[in-house]
Amino acid sequence: MSYPDHLGAARGDIPSDLLLKNARLINVFSGEIESTDIAVHADRIAGIGPGYFARETIDLANAFVAPGLIDGHVHIESSLCLPAQFAAAIIPRGVTTAVTDPHEIANVAGAAGVRFMVDASRGLPLRIITMAPSCVPATNMATTGASLGADDLQKLLNDGVVHGLAEVMNFPGVIAHDASVAAKLDAFRGKVIDGHAPGVRGKALNAYVAAGVGSDHECVTVDEAREKLARGVFILIREATNAKNLDALLPLITPANSRRIGFCTDDRNPSDLLRQGSIDQMLRRAIAAGVDPVDAIRCCTLNTAEWFRLHDRGAIAPGRFADLFVFRDLKSPVAERVYSGGQLVAQDGKLLAALPSPALPKALTNTCHVVREHLKLEVPAKGKRIRVIGSIPDQLITEHRILDATIQNDRVVADPARDLLKIAVVERHRGTGKVGVGFIQGFGLKRGAIAGTFGHDHHNIICIGCLDAPMYAAILNVEKMGGGLVVIDAMDEAVARLALPVAGLMSDRPVAEIASAYERLLAAARELGSTLHDPFIAMSFMGLEVIPSLKLTDQGLVDVDAFRHVDLFV
Amino acid sequence: MSYPDHLGAARGDIPSDLLLKNARLINVFSGEIESTDIAVHADRIAGIGPGYFARETIDLANAFVAPGLIDGHVHIESSLCLPAQFAAAIIPRGVTTAVTDPHEIANVAGAAGVRFMVDASRGLPLRIITMAPSCVPATNMATTGASLGADDLQKLLNDGVVHGLAEVMNFPGVIAHDASVAAKLDAFRGKVIDGHAPGVRGKALNAYVAAGVGSDHECVTVDEAREKLARGVFILIREATNAKNLDALLPLITPANSRRIGFCTDDRNPSDLLRQGSIDQMLRRAIAAGVDPVDAIRCCTLNTAEWFRLHDRGAIAPGRFADLFVFRDLKSPVAERVYSGGQLVAQDGKLLAALPSPALPKALTNTCHVVREHLKLEVPAKGKRIRVIGSIPDQLITEHRILDATIQNDRVVADPARDLLKIAVVERHRGTGKVGVGFIQGFGLKRGAIAGTFGHDHHNIICIGCLDAPMYAAILNVEKMGGGLVVIDAMDEAVARLALPVAGLMSDRPVAEIASAYERLLAAARELGSTLHDPFIAMSFMGLEVIPSLKLTDQGLVDVDAFRHVDLFV
Fold this sequence. Notes:
2 copies of one chain form a homodimer. Chain A is α/β, with parallel strands linked by helices.
């Protein structure tokens, strides 16, 4: 900002670049709605009130104008898009800032992955705030492509790459003051430290907060959220594709506590982003559920901005970024116009801004290495009772089931009639040849297989199938794409696929194309019998060895409650 | 804080240092009042809730516990006390943090004065946050002892001496983007920049805010405060000895906007501090006026902490400072116990903490230099109509009056029968011999004179009297004390005085002694006919050449509206 110029516009001595007349400004400071004019100069708000003149004047005819919405915690990688196309999806929704955690690419490519995401975020109409992934790898019970120690994170901070420390998922380590976690917290002392503490209550919660963690997006009940909020935790209510907490948590919001509440999407697949939206969808649903519209808008703007110390946004006030969400219906805000930094970047749901295409570093497009000769999915029947991952619809936690094995020719096999499928996790970062094989219930496939390189947090190839043949086909198909998602039918043919060449996580195609491909994958999986809303996201969490109760990594089954590997056979 | 130890206490694995049982915790996050226990370890809150054990347990028997109160803007020098004795006055009131602006001593001693105040604040039970004085000197129409340029301020910031930029009073310079003001704002870009913009509204306000200034304590009407709040200004409601805005501004506070409001005392004389209190008095009056007690407490705690980015206080939560204000009556909170950093520092109004006594740097006790041979108070009658400062009770602004001179022996003289007194401002920093002489109404003295070295902002000797003889006596008396306040009676004798040897602003005596001496000064002034609540504070603003309309400096009368010197005679 050129201050002499900007103050000239603010004083009304020189024309502003843009004047939005007859706005109904959602004032997140006063809690009121003002009928007024808004003068914008360069990328900032110059002034509010009468008497301004400008090079371009738009009569908003009493449209409402709120600050651009803020997503308080999101993994861009879950959209399967690069940052520019993630922006293309949510800018038309009125979301102008996203606080992101490039945790997925960090597990594949480490600090280089984080730096790539930051580089790829430059010049976008979406302001992307990058937090440092705090838990890479999640544990040493899986093989990842990279790890980030306190020193690596400190360097990212010193280099101005990251704004704070992202969701500190290792809450047992925080609470116990484990040295490696403590070193990371110490590196970010005085900065924003975001949390992730599902079910942590009472004294454990006190210790987690005392250690310096300040926010949380893992509450599932109002009771849990109320306790955390009262202990000083900023509550980010999450509505992800696979973890929907909005309905359960809306009763949390009261006029007396709403300042301590923000909204976030965490992980949304490209189809949900394009069809349902982002924070704007949460806003509409909060208002529909009875939350005061201005309070609800504060949860999407000022509150989150204040918690993350983003003092240059989150409100419409002189000197702040002219990021604006213009809408017509206060009962159901839908973006009519979206301004980012004073530029009209979307109108009536259509993106107007031009988006840069970053160059892809070669190292990030060569991350999928399978040693075919080591790829053995057969399971010799060494016993009759096996551990089975019991997946639960729309939940990340699984049940740890003990069931009779289905045995054919001295091999334990999948048994679709019992909804008992085989699951495999194939190490793909280093070509170590490590493969974990287990069994799972809850996916409903009757034939074929699905596979993908998007598998939290290690992002090895994860595959679920009814027979070994389509599983081999799925895994090799994914490898051939350099990463991606695939559905293999009963003929062992790929009937739908989406290449994710960037770190095996993201496509470099336009979001609409990615969403369509993704929808074809979902439809194809349904054709094979899948009963889940999104079997790919569900599958991606079946390898996450920090969420109870039974998970599978390339190193084998993990009893998460006992926090150790266990054998398939009981 | 030792984290391993602290987290052990938070987890309840080791005993805490202190357990406050049966507290009714004022939860500034949730807006609710919780019946609970509070565990304190070292200087921080360890945990909240049941199940803690401690070396010392206190049963609070359902007393209320709020966070320690925060004064959002105060000049310690106005208490005439050094920081330790200022703390002695307000710690028993429950105020545990004061955001201070050492603006007065900076005008006398520059950066050395600021550093002295910071040094003298170390180790106190009161957490003193020091902001950098932004406007030293106020103008070049008065002679000060020092000046602070952008480079000086930058050095204070770089050295960790100051937290942000204190009240940017030169609002015309901010709005016009004057180079010297802009350089100071630029030096503090990204830090807290506190404001001072009386009556600034509309486009000028937009420009002031756009320039980066974020708060204000100069509102006098709800209408002005509402406009500023809506533009994003954090409103500090002020209740000073000489500028009382609380009653007028309490109607500003609503549940929807209270998060953007804090309280401050700005300038309080030692008598008011000891007899009436500090922020605690404002809290009681806000509650009595009908503000929700928890909202009122937020105005004294969390709100101010958030605005000043003091994330380690302002709430009772794990990891924050154990600064606690314990009281019994929610309708009228009076501190029963005060904890600062986990230590019981006051009980039932009595200070328990031991206070350090800082060494006084010699340079700060030798600041009063009057050239007696240049001291001429006579006014030859060069005309018949004169400009007269019309002082108004309890206001800093004055009227610019044109009146007939009272002339005796070709000299313009004071005329107590018309309440027309002589006023003189004598340069005292450099011994330049500069003396400004004028006339003033509104003080009511019938005989004698009063004088002092506390005179905003230049802090030259300022004297008001009925005849020249007691005025000479007053000025020389003050000089002899090395700075201070004095009342001279009709016999030209000092009947009350208070030495202020530290920069001519502060005493190194205990606050109770200072307050008693101050009260004797007030009583003596009343004896001489003074009609004002506090003629010394009123006098101290008669030389402040930035507050309309007519003021006097050592360089002569200033027409503040025209922003230039003017002659006595019209």
